[in-house]
Specification:
30% of the residues lie in helices and 17% in strands. With 353 residues, the protein is α/β, with parallel strands linked by helices. The protein has a single domain, classed as Alpha-Beta Barrel (TIM Barrel). The strands form two sheets. The chain has a ten-stranded mixed β-sheet. Strands 11-12 form a two-stranded antiparallel ribbon. Helix 3 links the parallel strand 2 and strand 3.
């Protein structure tokens, strides 16, 4: 996991291979599934191979993602290519359902997969299946985790993480979830506070929790953990200034990485135009157009943080905060609903100013 303020945009690659998903999550960032399908439809095996072989040698990690990547029939081959390209970490972000078939899970590990992040959003079927709007998804995800736990004995390099999207319906169930996960030999539990974007924006009023409530609930959870257990849990995508009561090692920062999108499909400003790809000195390159020549089209290199200037904001008082440099700001829609009362500058020592 990155440390607070550390940018991994230069050494973590996401390769989008899923143009469909067999879950239907109510908070999904990719609300327009047809648009995603259209963007992915022209992506060829050669394009994927170029993505894997043309990045800077400092890129140590690749994650196959977007939609549900296990639905792509060529995924085992893509994983094999990634391993052959020399990535130290070859990973998969998945809902875990197809991993409930152990021969399939084994085929991915034999191809070179050594990191699996399973998205699971509650301690029980009632919670998870309601959020994914897919009956049986929880049982299959648990079966996938059980298979990975067994296969770890055969593939000791395998790391298994979970990803739990924290929202108003499950933020107070984190402790129960951790207990349910104990038998599955999970290496890290990542709790991502829901981003009010895509469907998360559509269902903001039903799903968006107050950051203060999330932080208080998470504090009660981590206070009950041992030091070893605490080292395996992380609360992400929540502003630092709302989490001063949490241990530094578990809180606050935003994951950073990059992926490739077809040129001309990345529109960042409210009017739909492309962002200026030329950064100020020392700034992160958010969009690099014409970064990769594909078989039939060119691709732009897009940082995960590319859309932050449009969907997040800061106020002048934020400049006084000791975390101002690494903070990406607060979602505009959040401030419009709840205001600024939760967000007070924090001194570098962690004391409120």
């Amino acid at each position: 996991m990155p440390t607070p303020g550390d940018s991994l945009v230069g050494n973590r690659l996401h390769v989008c291979v899923g143009d469909d998903c067999n879950n239907n999550c109510i908070f999904c960032m990719e609300e327009d599934r047809q648009s995603r399908h259209d963007r992915m439809a022209g992506q060829t095996d050669d394009d994927v191979r170029r993505m894997l072989t043309s990045v800077d040698p400092s890129v140590r990690e690749v994650m196959f993602t977007s939609g549900e990547p296990t639905l792509h029939p060529r995924l085992p081959e893509y994983i094999r290519w990634a391993a052959q390209a020399g990535f130290q970490i070859v990973g998969l972000i998945t809902n875990g359902r197809r991993l409930s078939y152990r021969p399939y899970a084994r085929s991915l590990l034999e191809a070179g997969l050594n990191h699996v992040l399973v998205s699971i959003h509650g301690p029980d079927a009632a919670t998870h299946d309601a959020l994914t709007r897919t009956r049986g998804a929880f049982v299959q995800a648990l079966a996938g985790l059980a298979n990975l736990a067994v296969l770890k004995r055969e593939f000791p390099a395998l790391k298994v993480h979970t990803s739990y999207v924290v929202n108003a319906r499950n933020y107070d169930k984190v402790a129960a979830f951790f207990q349910v996960m104990r038998p599955f030999r999970v290496d890290q539990h990542v709790f991502n506070v829901m981003m009010p974007d895509g469907r998360g924006g559509t269902f903001f009023d039903q799903l968006m929790p107050r950051y203060g409530d999330v932080a208080a609930s998470f504090r009660a959870f981590v206070d009950g953990l041992t030091a070893d257990e605490r080292a395996r849990v992380f609360l992400l995508d929540i502003p630092y200034c709302t989490t001063t009561g949490l241990p530094d090692g578990v809180r606050g920062y935003v994951e950073r990485y990059f992926h490739f999108e077809p040129d001309g499909t990345v529109h960042l400003d409210p009017e739909g135009g492309d962002a200026d790809p030329t950064p100020a000195a020392g700034d992160e390159v958010l969009v690099q157009t014409d970064a990769l020549a594909g078989e039939t089209r060119a691709y732009a290199k897009v940082a995960k943080t590319a859309r932050d200037d449009r969907v997040r904001t800061k106020r002048p008082l934020c400049a006084q905060c000791g975390f101002e440099r690494q903070c990406r700001g607060v979602f505009r829609s959040y401030v419009e609903r709840f205001g600024w009362d939760e967000f007070l500058p924090v001194r570098p020592t962690g004391e409120s100013s």
